[in-house]
Amino acid sequence: MAAVSRNHRFGESSAPFRRKTMPLQLHWIYAFLIFTASRCFADGDHEMEEFLKREYSLSKPYQGVGSLSSSHWELMGDTMVTTEQVRLTPDMQSRQGAVWSRISCNLKDWEMQVHFKIHGQGKKNLNGDGLAIWYTKERMQKGPVFGNMDNFTGLGVFVDTYPNEEKQLERIFPFVLAMVGNGTISYDHERDGRPTELGGCNAMVRNLKHDTFLFIRYVRRRLTVMIDIDGQHEWRDCLDIPGVRLPQGYYFGASAITGDLSDNHDIISLKLYQLTVLRSEKEEEEEEEEITIPSVDNIELLRLGQNEEGMSGIAIFFTVLFSMLGCIFIIVIGMLVYSHWSESRRKRFY
């Protein structure tokens, strides 16, 4: 199967352009620069190639979706399939739905591109709750975590549209975050998943007129999440975490949930690409160990770093304020002591 380039996937314009002549020397210089740049990019991606895997992908006209045993994707809950999207939930209260792949994925390195849409009648902060993209051991399980079970085993990438924590001081919603579960870790709804998140970014994705995309890449035990929500066909970094260990043989899925607040949560497409990466002998030896339980290397250090980097907003304001007050207090005390000492010294001379 032929490799598919990212520019081709986004369907960039191929409008005719006016050709300009170029001197022969500039041709050689231009060719050399292109060759050098291509080598640099190839080295950076370890000669990465991408192949669309249709058996793990979901796209229009959504053939192979349904309850038949021959279907590649299975629906659950309130999910409905139309000609334009797979609607996980309608803009109604207390609904949840999901779509799950029937085929377990045994790819070592992969990349998922999610074309999605979240929209509804609710105004800002009066909508909810969000959707999730899954790569987990379990499938077709209803639950409170964006329509999936709690204590899941595998990877969840969440587009959280409603803040449950009352004091949201430095986080803007909607917010994209990722979590790796080992079957015993619970998602903390009251704190919007903060205790277990690997990282994330804000993403204003509701009620947009242009397309919105989520990019999830897992290669060489590194998890990368990016978003394209500005209509510019440009990826923006969201999180990049090394040392993520995900077993092979898990299932892809997407789910969503509404509560007292609601939204339409639509999946337009899920496209999975197999990544072929050339590895050195040392890398092959390091990755020979079979992974049976999902985990993240140095997770405690990672979260400690996030806590230190995450101090912002009101926390930074009060830190700066109290630091300034402390400096002023020290200066005032110093001036009083110096004044008292000067007065005492002056009196000794009279």
Topology:
Elements: H1 6-10, H2 24-44, E1 49-52, E2 73-77, E3 80-81, E4 86-89, E5 96-101, E6 110-119, E7 130-136, E8 153-160, E9 175-182, E10 199-202, E11 212-219, E12 222-228, E13 236-242, E14 244-245, E15 251-257, E16 264-276, H3 281-286, E17 295-296, H4 299-309, H5 314-348
Antiparallel strand pairs: 1-16, 2-5, 3-4, 4-16, 5-15, 6-11, 6-16, 7-8, 7-15, 8-9, 9-10, 11-12, 12-13, 14-17
Keyword list:
single chain; 350 residues; alpha+beta; 2 domains; 30% strand; membrane; ConA-like_dom_sf; glycoprotein
Short description:
The chain has 350 residues and is an alpha+beta fold. Helix content is 22%, strand content 30%. The protein has helices spanning 6-10, 24-44, 281-286, 299-309, 314-348, and strands spanning 49-52, 73-77, 80-81, 86-89, 96-101, 110-119, 130-136, 153-160, 175-182, 199-202, 212-219, 222-228, 236-242, 244-245, 251-257, 264-276, 295-296.
Explain this structure to me?
The chain crosses the membrane at residues 314-338. This is L-type lectin-like domain-containing protein. InterPro entries: ConA-like_dom_sf, Intracellular_Lectin-GPT, Lectin_leg. The protein is an alpha+beta fold. The chain has 2 domains: 41-296, Jelly Rolls; 298-328. The protein is 22% helix and 30% strand. The chain has 5 helices and 17 strands. It has helices spanning 6-10, 24-44, 281-286, 299-309, 314-348; strands spanning 49-52, 73-77, 80-81, 86-89, 96-101, 110-119, 130-136, 153-160, 175-182, 199-202, 212-219, 222-228, 236-242, 244-245, 251-257, 264-276, 295-296. The strands form 3 sheets. Strands 1, 3, 4, 6, 11, 12, 13 and 16 form an 8-stranded antiparallel β-sheet that branches. A 7-stranded antiparallel β-sheet has the order 2-5-15-7-8-9-10, with no helix packed on it. The radius of gyration is 26 Å and the shape is globular.
